[in-house]
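P.,

For your records, the input lines for the assembly:
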Amino acid sequence: MTKLAAPLLKRLSRYQHYEALEQVPHAQGRLTRMVGLTLEAVGLNVSVGRQCKVVLSSGREVEAEVVGFDEDKTFLMPVQKVDGLQPGARVVPVDAHKNLSMGEHLRGRILNGVGQPLDGLGPVSCRAKVDLEPSTINPLHRHPIDETLDVGIRAINSLLTVGKGQRIGLFAGSGVGKSVLLGMMTRFTTADVVVVGLIGERGREVKEFVDHILGPQGLKKSVVVAAPADDAPLMRLRASQLATRIAEYFRDQGKNVLLLMDSLTRFAQAQREISLAIGEPPATKGYPPSVFAKIPDLVERAGNGDKGGGSITAFYTVLTEGDDLQDPIADASRAILDGHIVLSRQLAEQGIYPAIDIEASISRVMPNIVDANHLAAAQRFKQLLARYRENKDLIAIGAYARGSDPQIDAAIERFPHLQQFIGQKIGEPAPYPQSLAQLFTVVQSGAATTPAASAEQTQQGGTLKTAQSRQQRPLSANRR
Ligand SMILES: Nc1ncnc2c1ncn2[C@@H]1O[C@H](COP(=O)(O)OP(=O)(O)OP(=O)(O)O)[C@@H](O)[C@H]1O
Ligand SMILES: [Mg+2]
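Structure tokens returned:
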């Protein structure tokens, strides 16, 4: 018996050290090294994610977060830009990010990543206090996505209908119209609150977005959290987390929240900077594996709350460098989001805004939340568009003879109307019922008037109405 117990006791004794460590109070440490943005301290006994302050000899304090450790060394990253750090500076654990002010007073405010106002309108004073930690929801208790959300954009409302609690990626290269589209949604949506996270944008763009794209009308019902590109990577991460936390707060109050995050790629890049700095090896295109774990961590926090509660419908912009949809971040996000909207540079160059590439975009929840007539009309729209694009070159060089294919004839006939339907001016709202009515008109009008269209419908085995009657029952009860 003793023979057996001896090795076991020996093995257990190894853990005594860790146990002892846990019992040590959160002592303060000393700064020993700084490489790039990474700080190294000794003498700290705190867990990863813990906030600390580095106290300089001048008395100035620098906020930092524990991002890793190696035996007795603790790695930290400053939350804000720092200068004047010196070896031996005291590192003291603090209880930051508790008691974040939350409430109606946040509407119309512009905050930085740690919740401080950037708009010069004084401190934010709300009664409710929350931690930055995510509010957890049992996935089995989440209310399913079964209601539509009016985002005020005609093409999205009618062809890529968004459900309350859905998470959508907005994939686009630079300068294709992401910010303008997000601004339009903020102004025209029927959501109760809009939370906008501007992560890693150029500093100049934050003001431009707030003053020109959002305007006073958009800002009134929104909360903006901004961390421009020159903020420390940790600040950019915090801003994404804070925007999500604010959205969670309003959702927990029973509100329907629209969360617009511009951009998820910059969030991933901030995480990449941190992971590489603490020595994690890069994997895909310089992104270390932990980045791909952090994206779902953030995105999964959006969605519906418990039954009867509020919802967070979220749009995350994803930059597709050189319009490359195979970018690792684009790839990873597409897999975890409930739909993607692709903005096409080609359309933008033709002056069609919002430059939504309808064929490349999809709303995965749309079939569950719209009725059969709506779905059939949207499919008809996409068929016409696809038919035209497939034969575009032939049509352009005059190699297509009218009358050869009734479906192509119908597509040629209606193509200008389809494009016009997608286009929407910056100041023009498109409420859901109106978008839907216009969709029915644009897909049906040609059908009623042109012989080519009737021939095409006969060939297809029925008119649009027949297609609808085949699906009399909505795919799911129409809950709107
Ligand atoms: N709906 C629209 N109507 C007219 N013009 C538009 C519309 N949307 C975008 N534009 C034009 O496209 C330009 C670029 O738009 P925007 O700033 O939204 O692009 P972006 O994708 O956010 O760019 P970046 O990648 O630099 O952030 C605008 O300055 C504007 O001229
Ligand atoms: Mg932009």
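Two observations worth noting. Residues 178-179 surround magnesium ion (ligand 2) (CB under 6 Å). The radius of gyration is 27 Å.

Regards
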